[in-house]
Amino acid sequence: MTVELIYWDSCAFLGWLQEEADKVELCRGTIERAKAGEVGIITSALTLTEVLWTKNAPPLTSDKADLLRRFFRHSYIRVQNVTRSIAETAQDVVWNHSIKPKDAIHVATALAQSVPTLETFDDHLITRTGVIGTPPLVIRKPIPPKQTSLLL
Q1: Per-domain boundaries in the chain
Q2: Which uninterrupted H or E stretch holds 111?
Q3: pTM assigned to the model
């Protein structure tokens, strides 16, 4: 069985971890597929820090450190270091596609790992689907879980 690789940026993880009403159900689809061994979730080491503080919420406090660290150690999540090559690719992404630097690190990491799909809730990134990378990176929101049919 081939495992599909999907890149998650920080806002996808935040949608899941903070159980944001408009995001958690979409994230559940990818998480369920990952737990079933169908998907591997790739992310940047940058994510481990970015998830601590969001724009419209208080920062996660250190009492959540153990829980957060254990979550990112799940076997279906692979954390990639930011290398010089990734940082230089991210520079090109900023210059050529008008993407913010932290977001460019996520895009460059996905490209470096040959991940075909980046899942995010960042509308600006989503508008860049199909125009970055060779083959072009698909940038989309997470896909909700498959509906099961009810036996009546």
Answers
A1: 4-140
A2: helix 101-112
A3: 0.91
